[in-house]
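Mods, move this if it's the wrong board.
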Amino acid sequence: QVHVAESGGGLVQSGGSLMLSCVATGFNFGDYRASWYRQAPGKERELVAGISSGGSSTTYADSVKGRFTISRDNGKRAMYLRMNSLKSEDTAVYHCAAHISGRDYWGQGTQVTVSS
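Not the wrong board. Structure tokens:
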């Protein structure tokens, strides 16, 4: 059964850093693209960053470029989001998603709260 689960969220001051992790089970994680999304209260879900199956290609939302870094370790079936220089507008629930044969599998999300 396909399952992805996020961890690493929390409360951090503006300018601080956090590292989110996503662990995948039930499928060969290294075969598929994956992404981080976020959803803030009252706003639509937005793509934060995406990464190719092998990790060689990445993409970022303009709002996080230069501050966030997406990476993956297929041997550990894991994906990461390093978030630096956090701003209050980064406050949201962050979800990881695995893109498998035209279908997206989502985790439950982890809350990131940035205090100003």
